[in-house]
Amino acid sequence: MANFSKPSVPRFSVDVYQNEYLPEGGREVNAIVTVTSTGGGTLAGATAAPRPAGPDAGAAVALMVDCSGSMDYPPTKMRNARDATAAAVDTLRDGVHFAVIGGTHVAKEVYPGGGRLAVADAGTREQAKQALRRLSAGGGTAIGTWLRLADRLLSCADVAIRHGILLTDGRNEHESPEDLKAALDACAGRFTCDARGVGTDWEVKEVTSIASALLGSADIVADPAGLAADFARMMENAMGKEVADVALRVWTPVGTTIRFVKQVAPTVEELTGRRTEAGPRAGDYPTGSWGDESRDYHVCVEVPAAGLGQEMLAARVSLVVPQPDGSAQNLGAQGLVRAVWTDDMTASTSINPQVAHYTGQAELAQAIQEGLDLRKAGDIDGATAKLGRAVQLAGASGNADTAKLLAKVVDVVDAATGTVRLKAKVAEADEMTLETRSTKTVRVKK
Fold first, then answer.
1. How far apart are alpha carbons 85 and 210 in whole angstroms?
2. What count of other Cβ atoms lies within 10 Å of the Cβ of residue 350?
3. Could you give the CA distance from residue 273 to residue 261 in angstroms, rounded to a whole number?
4. Is residue 138 packed enough to be buried (19+ CB in 10 Å), middle (13-18) or exposed (0-12)?
5. 387-396: buried (b, 16+ CB within 10 Å) or exposed (e) per residue?
6. How confident is the model at residue 326 (pLDDT cuts 50, 70, 90)?
7. Distance CA 327, CA 332 (A)
8. Model confidence over 344-403: pLDDT tens digits?
């Protein structure tokens, strides 16, 4: 069993990478904002009284395990799911609140039951694993009910970090897409959730939409035998999260419009539509929970036209934790995005390397998704063009992992020009892996 000690208070930093120079009449300003959290720790520990000895009130985790009838085909799948959940339970830090949910067309409490959470220690971990041995497959799939039960259970604990881990092997056939979306809307901002699809009978867009809405990760585990290692890694990652509900606050001056805000590393995640207003000319964009890590964001703003030699602050980016009373706790890090108008053509036409890199990574993710959709629709020419462009972008940016996944779907004739041929036969797991991991990016070489 892993034993995680509590890290110290984290420190956040913000770095801005951009070419601030614009030509006469130029109005679009692009910047890559790198946010880094180092040192681990808890926000509560930094500002409130120290936690009491004994149970750790800092985190709560809900494990949602698919128990629908399809989990019996093959029979080893259910056993692998039980073993994986047991591995995750073993990785729980002492004092963390937790629950196990069995998901079919309804959601059932597997452990501890009674509408409550258990507190992790040697005894409760063993009890949870005993309860897991009694899990069996049968019934349908209604993931929205699993999420709503997880939300109810997680809300029982007075904790900073609330996290879910969800495993499914099939399509969400026993509730409407609207029901699932309503559940995701209800849970968004209340807990984060990592989602995994096991085997190849699930719908990629369903699983990735769950992770996206709840600011977690999504992946495929094509071979159920790989579940235990994957679940242990996910739980280790969850145990490393120490600051919840961090928002990227972007302030812009009068006359400036935010075109978009998106996370671009470690994955591409559109945040523009998730803005909540935070006072005059400021908005908050949710980033979820943080441990000891670094992420990159692309901020694009449109500024008023100005004359040569003029300069302005185009945006100010800071990190905050919104509070229930509408206030926000500032995490003490900020970055400035500037605009300077010049007639120096060399300065104003050069593209910042970080901006260029992540613009390509976002295009790569889009080209893969569009190419696979066209392939499924039977548009061979369109799919070939899109996936060829993806091969070209993956090669140019050094995204070797994505290039390898693409090579399982297309025969690469010339990566530099994006010349490819669609493979006549593609393993379903290979296509689903490419689609699920299409938004994973590589960091720019600074």
1. 19
2. 12
3. 9
4. exposed
5. bbbbbbbbbe
6. confident
7. 15
8. 999 999 999 999 999 999 999 999 999 999 999 999 999 999 999 999 999 999 999 999
Task: Answer yes or no: are the C-beta atoms of 16 and 33 closer than 8 Å.
Answer: yes
What local confidence, expressed as pLDDT, does residue 188 receive? Answer: 96
- Percentage, residues of the chain above pLDDT 90: 89
Residue 435 has pLDDT above 90, yes or no: yes
The CA radius of gyration of the chain, in Å to the nearest whole number, is 23
- Which pair of structure tokens corresponds to residue 107? 């959601």
pLDDT greater than 90 at residue 9: no
Question: Across-strand partners of 47?
Answer: none
H/E stretch holding 62 reads: strand 59-66
Alpha-carbon torsion angle 147, 149, 153, 155, nearest 10: 60
Q: What is the pLDDT of residue 50?
A: 33
Q: What is the distance between the alpha carbons of residues 40 and 293, in angstroms, rounded to a whole number?
A: 9
* Strand locations in 222-281 (E): 243-251, 257-265, 269-270, 276-277
* Tokens 């992946």 sit on residue: 219
- Selection from 174, 189, 237, 181 nearest residue 205 by Cα: 181
Q: Is the peptide bond before 74 cis (omega within 30 degrees of 0)?
A: yes
pLDDT digits (tens, 9 = 90+) for 131-150: 999 999 999 999 999 999 99
Which uninterrupted H or E stretch holds 307? none
Looking at the chain, how many residues does it have?
446
Nearest to 128 by CA among 92, 182, 163: 92
> Which tokens is 160 given?
């900073």
